[in-house]
Amino acid sequence: MSLIKLSGGRVIDPANGVNDQVRDIWVRDGYIVAAPDGNEKVTAEYNISGRIVMSGAIDMHTHIGGGKVNIAREMLPEDHRGDTVERTELTRSSCGHAAPGTLAAGYRYAEMGYTACFEPAVLPINARQAHMEMGDTPMVDTGGYVMLGSDDFLLRMLAANEDQQAINDYVAWTLNATQTVGVKVVNPGAISAFKFNQRKLDLDEENAYYGVTPRRILQVLSRAVHELGVPKPLHVHASNLGVPGNVGTTLGTMDAAEGLPIHLTHIQFHSYGTEGDRKFSSEAARIAEAINRQKNVTADVGQILFGQTVTASGDNMVQYRNADHGSPKKSVIMDIECDAGCGVVPFKYKDQNFVNALQWAIGLEIFLMVDDPWRVFLTTDHPNGAPFTTYPHLIKLLMDRSYRNAMLDTINPEARAMSNLGSLDREYSLYEIATMTRAAPAKLIGLADRGHLAPGAAADIVVYRENADPERMFEKPELVFKDGELVVRDGRIVKVVRGNIHAVKPEFDIGIEKKIQPYFERYHSVRMSNFKISNDELCECGGGTKLIPHACKKRG
Amino acid sequence: MTNEATSTVMTEVACPMCGHACDDLSVDTAGASLAVVAKGCERARSSFARLSTVGDSALPRIDGKPVSLDAACAEAARVLGAATLPVFGGMALDVGGARAAMELADQAGGVIDHMNNEFGWRASRVVQDGGGINTTLAEVRNRADLILLVGTDAVSAQPRFFERCVWVGETMFDLAPASRRIVYLGGGLDTAPGVSPDGRQPDVFEFDLMRMPEALSVLNALMAKQPVTGEAPLGIALARWQELVDALFAAKYSVVVWAGPAFDAAQLDLNVGAVVSLVRKLNVTTRCNSLPLAGNDGDLSMGAVHTWQTGYPMRTSYASGAPKFDPVHNGITRLLQTGEADALVWLNSLADHVAPPACGVPTVVIAPPSQKLDGEPHVFIPVATPGIHHSGHFVRTDKVVTLPLRALRATSLPAAETVAMSIAAKLREVRT
């Protein structure tokens, strides 16, 4: 039994409506508890008066594990050379900037006060590897969103007009078999279409072989996720990423959910118009207005920040198209197992490049024009917009208008002229930052015991020294506790721990396996029994990670 | 149909004996050795039989004398603790073994280099220089209408390639498997598996494999509509080369198969780079993908873990306390020959057929009891094999699919990861 007391901190806990109130926090055996009665012995006390206290931050969209991430690592030794992590008594050596090793990623996340990270693109057939990589990412809880929508099994079901119930069973079966916490769709149907040599696929355009449209895929998957009771809304990487004028597709994608919950990811890349001499303009205002109006819609931004990074995506159609824009110019594009695909293209965002500069402004415009911090999430789509280590800088851009405007003054002047960023006065408060990086992602994913500081919560706690410069404050917390253990002090790891893995367990009719098993035997390269990951095997994949299963309550 | 509840035959067993990782084997566990009774290939049958029987009671040795596991691990730790630059070779491991090897090599300040990596690092360099466009086995099985095998017959590396990916019963799309066109580039290959089920012979472009760079140049030049000198490059009529190029452009989903060890090592970058160039040209108008055949002896399992944990591929030195990647400098054959390396750990759990090099430095061998040895090493620690004695994970040829390996029979031998972690723990004691 351990009993820890954090005394006198200024608590910011939006999930419980607590805004900068001085409170003691008690932790017993890894969980936050109410102040104990009587004379229970306190095993450790931390006087944190004057400090800001929040729950551990949650990155709800970060590419930290799986085949494409490992391709990016292999491909980019030049990324790693200047960014090594030396071995210490406690920690292993590792390296990498935009495509860090799992060890470097885990240490750095913890040192920034993050205690949970979710890999948003787990290919079903690659789920085992994704879990092994996440298992080798120390310090943080992990989970994955499984990618569906270009897998031939689903497309065959849609082409055969199978009913929603059968699709729900398949989706639930996949979530269980791959041990994931949500469902993602990437450029719906287009990864399959690319295999049939289609080079673009609009929202209402048919896959050449199956005759299925992206809209239909969005409809059935958003409905499946909703009806199964999976808390996390369908995670949507919409069609036409990066294409000037894609705002119409993005608004149409929101509509395709027909009022059901839908999450649009890295929406910055999907908020473009065709105004101006360069036929590239910001449609952030229309996107923000649509999010503000449609309460079923959430989004993360996918902010770009200037510098070298690498883009790693399941969207092989778009990545193939963009490969010539890569810097350095190299790319890996893959078709994968009648299941999905991927593309890895290094990229350097330049502040004097018109398009890059406007992308930067568009992301910030969305952050500042979406009213509700519960429905917009702080991401760079690591590493696609920028490495996750830029988050403290991004927070400063949101919290400090004068700093933001000073940056705006330095970017490509044509882009600056095309943006209304300079006229946006909003400055995020600490409470709003805590909402979008803690309370809201926990609520969205359905993590009842994370993202808040009330009794019953897991003791993932971060203590910051307040600083007039938010970047300094957020890059180096004073204390980080993971499941009640002190793991970081003054921005340095003091204890290495293994996080938990989160997976949802929606119910389904096991009869669906009568369709899936023969499919594997007739067409696949593995057997169904070897595709599925059991609870025991998951923990082995994770190197001993603890599984936190989340039950789902059916809806509709 | 066997009833698993009562039968001694385990079904849908995954096989780690080559990079194809077939997972449809039936293995009878009742006899003195494991018997592959359905599916599988000769390599699987002999490997399961041999690795399941040899020396279950083998003991660790120091200088040939039997010792306890604890004493052997302690001596291995002492050797590593005394070394300035220990090198780790062999490395035929599954994911669990590779994870432990990484922990040990990082702590020991060494270098890891898989025994197949003379080819692997060069293939990696092509990815680092330009990338590629690749596909995986199930896509080949269902979509490939033209398969071009460059310098490899596939089956020498992965015996069931044609059975499982080419001449299958049916495909998911409008493609009759028997209608696929098979083309071999290079001579001296086993082209019999390329004969279609209805007896159609494959096209074979016969030439000395050392001339592969020329052959690929001819194809790339014709694709780019550039002039090619002579009526018969490499002794083959130009018209045949042109017809192949036309067929590749006309194919809906061609696949270019290559295997690193089939190339002359010094030509590997050149050949793979030329394949990538060819594939990129075809994708401007149609679909074409490479399929590298790798993964044998767990090279991709070791390589994947190395890359994901530290960011760098193998041939990274941990000697300074931070990873330093230099694949030219850090080849362990070179480090041993120049005397830069002063200890060798030969670590295998999946393979026993390559002996550690005789190198004159203290050598620790951690391997199956049947490990081939040219001389008695200073320390020998016999270990179990994943997929036979204990569960594990194995990364397949396409770097996408990881297969679960099963424990099929009990053993008293420890797993390689147990031994490596034990040595790492003792090394920590030696150092403090």
Low-confidence runs of chain B (pLDDT<50, min 5 residues)? none
With helices defined by DSSP (H or I, 4 residues minimum), what is the helix count of chain B?
A: 12
Q: Main β-sheet of chain B, in a few words?
A: 7 strands, mixed
Counting DSSP E segments of at least 2 residues, the number of strands of chain B comes to 20
What percent of the residues of chain A sit in helical stretches (DSSP H or I)?
A: 25-40%
Indicate the radius of gyration of chain A in whole angstroms.
22 Å
The tally of structural domains of chain A comes to 2
**Overall residue-averaged pLDDT value of chain A:** 97
What is the CATH level 1 assignment of the largest domain in chain B? Alpha Beta
**Shape summary of chain B:** globular
Number of strands of chain A: 26
Secondary structure class of chain B reads alpha/beta
N→C terminal distance of chain A: 44 Å
Explain what this protein looks like in three dimensions.
The complex is a heterodimer of chains A (556) and B (432). Chain A is of the alpha/beta class. Chain A folds into 2 domains: 3-55 and 449-493, Roll (Urease, subunit C, domain 1), CATH 2.30.40; 69-111 and 145-423, no CATH class. In chain A, 33% of the residues lie in helices and 23% in strands. Chain A starts with a strand and ends in a 5-residue tail after the last strand. In chain B, 32% of the residues lie in helices and 19% in strands. Chain B has 12 helices and 20 strands. Chain B has helices at 42-53, 69-82, 95-108, 117-129, 137-143, 161-166, 212-223, 238-250, 268-282, 299-310, 332-337, 416-431; strands spanning 9-13, 25-28, 35-38, 61-62, 65-66, 86-92, 111-112, 131-134, 146-150, 181-185, 203-205, 253-258, 287-292, 316-317, 324-325, 343-348, 363-367, 379-382, 392-395, 402-405. The radius of gyration of chain B is 23 Å and the shape is globular. The termini of chain B are far apart. The mean pLDDT of chain B is 96. The chains are: A alpha/beta (556), B alpha/beta (432). At the A-B interface, helix 1, helix 2, strand 7, strand 8 and helix 3 of A face helix 3, helix 4, strand 8, helix 5 and helix 10 of B.
